[in-house]
Design the sequence.
């Protein structure tokens, strides 16, 4: 009876080790997905900053052009 119990214990431990073996692969996939998401966020922040800089440059150019048009109109009068 003791041998049967010992054999069942060994089989139980073997099943437990095999059943718990896939955890590292899932953790690696989650870490990879998190790093991809962080990289995408950094890219979108950089794109937003570039868009804001472009918008500021366009606004400055249009303001300069409007001022020059107003100055030219004032000298014609």
Sequence:
């Amino acid at each position: 009876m003791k041998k049967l119990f010992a054999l069942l214990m060994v089989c139980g431990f073997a099943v437990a080790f095999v059943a718990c073996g896939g955890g590292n692969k899932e953790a690696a996939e989650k870490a990879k997905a998190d790093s991809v998401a962080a990289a995408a966020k950094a890219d979108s922040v950089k794109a937003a900053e570039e868009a804001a800089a472009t918008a500021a440059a366009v606004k400055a150019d249009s303001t300069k052009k409007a001022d020059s048009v107003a100055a030219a109109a004032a000298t014609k009068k």
Notes: The two ends are 116 Å apart (CA to CA). Residues 21-76 form one domain.
